[in-house]
């Protein structure tokens, strides 16, 4: 089973299992590895088996994505199809199946889907402002 990123993604693509863009899967992989390293450094006794829970992965992903993408977060994650914890779980499980991550028995689609909150929360007012801007533009064109 390939363990380097390029070979693993090529294998996913060849098998028709590259369900997310390469940038998305690479971002998820980097995020999980970063979270794993941080957990080991902060709580070495708790990370003895080296695994993170799906909840820890989702929480870390949310924080990292907000930090990295800021106001573009909805667009980036939307383009990637990464809008829910269930989608994040699919990506993590895919990376595990292709040898890039080690999975534990608790890493199930249901465990990731248990958090029903979207990864890209809508800020109240943002939708209203966007709708108003569209209406103003349409009126100006008429």
Explain what this protein looks like in three dimensions:
Helix 2 (22-42) crosses helix 3 (54-69). The chain has 142 residues and is an all-alpha fold. Helix content is 63%, strand content 0%. The relative contact order is 0.15. The longest helix has 21 residues, at 22-42. It has seven helices and no strands.
Number of domains: 1
Q: What is the alpha-carbon Rg in Å?
A: 18 Å
Question: In angstroms, what separates the terminal alpha carbons?
Answer: 59 Å
Largest sheet, described in full? none
Strand content: under 5%
Order of helices and strands: HHHHHHH
Low-confidence stretches: 123-135
DSSP E strands, number: 0
Q: Could you give a short description of this structure?
A:
63% of the residues lie in helices and 0% in strands. The protein is mostly helical. Helix 2 packs across helix 3 and helix 2 crosses helix 5.
């Amino acid at each position: 089973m390939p363990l380097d990123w390029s070979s693993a993604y090529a294998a996913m693509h060849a098998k028709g299992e590259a369900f997310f863009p390469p940038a998305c899967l690479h971002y998820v992989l980097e995020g999980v590895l970063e979270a794993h390293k941080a957990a080991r450094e902060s709580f070495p006794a708790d990370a003895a088996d080296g695994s993170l829970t799906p909840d820890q992965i989702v929480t870390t992903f949310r924080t990292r994505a907000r930090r990295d993408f800021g106001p573009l977060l909805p667009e980036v994650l939307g383009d990637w199809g990464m809008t829910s914890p269930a989608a994040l779980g699919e990506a993590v499980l895919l990376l595990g199946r292709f040898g890039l991550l080690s999975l534990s028995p608790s890493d199930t689609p249901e465990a990731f889907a248990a958090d029903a909150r979207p990864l890209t929360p809508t800020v109240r007012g943002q939708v209203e402002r966007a709708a108003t801007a569209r209406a103003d533009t349409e009126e100006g064109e008429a």
